[in-house]
């Protein structure tokens, strides 16, 4: 077995990050993830999600602890193109005159020599990546002339062109329509089947159980990490989100005779999470969810 046959591993070992102003954004954070998985990185604003991504991308250096990717240091892993980052759109200068094709080709830089002249293989891989995200028809378009969801798809294509086994996605569903959301989720599932490891930051709780098989719950440190069903408990989420979430409990039913069950709802006012009596997630895979999304997308198309 060669190193590339082995499932890729991401280990965050007792990582503490302190910014130059003295702010400790992450303290003693630890978790380990293995390829073939979609993992949600979940926490409130300011909980350290971006900081953790920065540590994995070598933008900030931990003052304690280490991040290992495929058993290698972050620097070595970046050099070997093991990690790709799909940014939040806000971080990019949209007036910069680059085309969709140029952006996707950036994913190939690590494979080119210093002249950065793309070869036939680079063009083939970039083309394939654009097709996979459904953006091939937009290749000539200036990047600033795309919708929010289209921009996200282009950055995802860049990550695909990079052929990285670990993909970090920073809030990929913020500001995208349901159709783009389901396109991205579908693509992430295919990549999972191909052995990639995706770490997806989000503060939109409701979507997490639908597509993440694992969750890292953070608030300046790792509060819990593991399978979604085990981590997404009422107790853990209340600890992570505190007063941010609205909390409802229904002990009585007004439409039928009460059968003794109680239901708790935790909601960020986007999509509610429903917990049963034991405090565990009531349904982690919503039955027929895809069908509902398709229907909604069709309805939007018909408008
Ligand atoms: N460059 C910086 N210098 C100093 N403090 C910072 C810096 N960047 C972030 N912080 C602080 O570190 C903490 C964690 O911030 P971080 O951006 O990692 O959170 P986040 O979970 O990504 O938040 P959001 O969901 O709002 O993007 C916050 O208190 C923030 O103010």
Please summarize what this structure is.
By secondary structure, the protein is of the alpha/beta class. 31% of the residues lie in helices and 24% in strands. It has a domain at 9-82 and 164-229: P-loop containing nucleotide triphosphate hydrolases (Rossmann fold).
Explain what the structure shows.
With about 300 residues, the protein is α/β, with parallel strands linked by helices. The chain has a domain at about 10-80 and about 165-230: Rossmann fold, CATH 3.40.50. Helices cover about 30% and strands about 25% of the residues. It contains ten helices and 13 strands. It has helices at about 50-55, 75-80, 100-105, 120-130, 150-160, 180-195, 210, 230, 235-240, 290-300; strands at about 10-20, 25-35, 35-40, 65-70, 70-75, 85, 165-170, 195-200, 215-220, 220-225, 245-250, 265, 275. The strands form three sheets. A six-stranded mixed sheet has the order 6-7-8-3-9-10, with helices on both faces. Strands 2-1-4-5 form a four-stranded antiparallel sheet. A three-stranded antiparallel sheet has the order 11-12-13, with no helix packed on it. A hairpin with a 3-residue loop joins strand 9 (about 215-220) and strand 10 (about 220-225). Helix 4 (about 120-130) packs across helix 5. The protein is globular. It binds adenosine-5'-triphosphate.
């Amino acid at each position: 077995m060669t190193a590339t046959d082995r499932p890729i591993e991401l280990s965050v070992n007792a990582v503490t990050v302190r910014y130059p102003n003295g702010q400790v954004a992450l303290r003693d954070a630890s978790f380990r993830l293995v390829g073939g998985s979609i993992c949600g990185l979940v926490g409130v604003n300011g909980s350290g999600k971006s900081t953790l991504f920065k540590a994995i991308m070598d933008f900030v250096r931990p003052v304690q602890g280490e991040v290992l990717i495929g058993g290698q240091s972050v620097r070595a892993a970046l050099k070997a193109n093991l990690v790709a980052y799909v940014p939040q759109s806000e971080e990019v200068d949209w007036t910069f005159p680059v085309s969709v094709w140029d952006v996707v080709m950036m994913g190939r830089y690590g494979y080119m020599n210093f002249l950065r002249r793309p070869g036939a293989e680079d063009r083939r891989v970039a083309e394939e990546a654009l097709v996979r995200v459904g953006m091939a028809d937009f290749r000539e378009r200036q990047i600033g002339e795309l919708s929010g969801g289209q921009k996200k798809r282009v950055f995802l294509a860049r990550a695909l062109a990079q052929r990285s086994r670990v993909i970090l996605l920073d809030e990929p569903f913020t500001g995208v329509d349901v159709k783009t959301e389901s396109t991205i989720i579908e693509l992430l599932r295919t990549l999972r089947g191909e052995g990639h490891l995706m770490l997806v930051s989000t503060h939109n709780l409701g979507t997490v159980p639908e597509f993440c098989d694992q969750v890292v719950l953070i608030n300046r440190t790792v509060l819990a990490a593991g399978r979604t069903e085990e981590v997404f408990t009422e107790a853990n989420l209340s600890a992570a989100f505190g007063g941010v979430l609205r909390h409802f409990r229904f002990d009585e039913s007004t439409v039928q005779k009460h059968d003794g069950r109680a239901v708790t709802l935790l909601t960020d006012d986007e999509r509610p999470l429903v917990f049963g009596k034991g405090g565990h997630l009531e349904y982690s895979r919503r039955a027929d969810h895809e069908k509902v999304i398709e229907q909604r997308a069709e309805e939007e198309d018909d408008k």
